[in-house]
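Just scan my protein:

. . .
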Amino acid sequence: MIEVGKIDSKIIGEEFLFFDYIKQPIKDSEVQSWRDQGYYHESFTGELYSSKNPMPEWTQKVAQGIGLKQCGFTFYKMNTLDIMPPHQDHFETYCRIFNVDQKEVFRTIVFIQDWKPGHYFEYNKIGFTNWNKGDYVMYSYDVEHAASNIGVEPRFTLQVTGLKD
């Protein structure tokens, strides 16, 4: 399942520019899979600011606008040359915390800034660029997606994980 839409960009604040982002480890098996495909980066993925930290109040308005409940939020920062090769999300932590099946869970990538040159997102082998602040892509566990930043400015997004309202 894939849904592309837009929320009111006026509700999105700019606190995310100043968060303390942390690079999180990725499963060795996933990294090895990418290496087997020819990816040779030293490290994969960007940096995260997750729901373990205080979240801006407007994230709840975003969740309402995209139609998700029981949400977990993660701000995601990709610096120049950060990549996240094609993969599917597993939602293991979310499923464990909320005691739900993976097939019930959806993730939404909310673009919290206008697109900048070199910023890229892909879902089901469809490239997505030139987005506007407030645009989003929602997908289910079985949708392959990827992201990268070959631009000179950081790429910021908000990941919202939850159940359809």
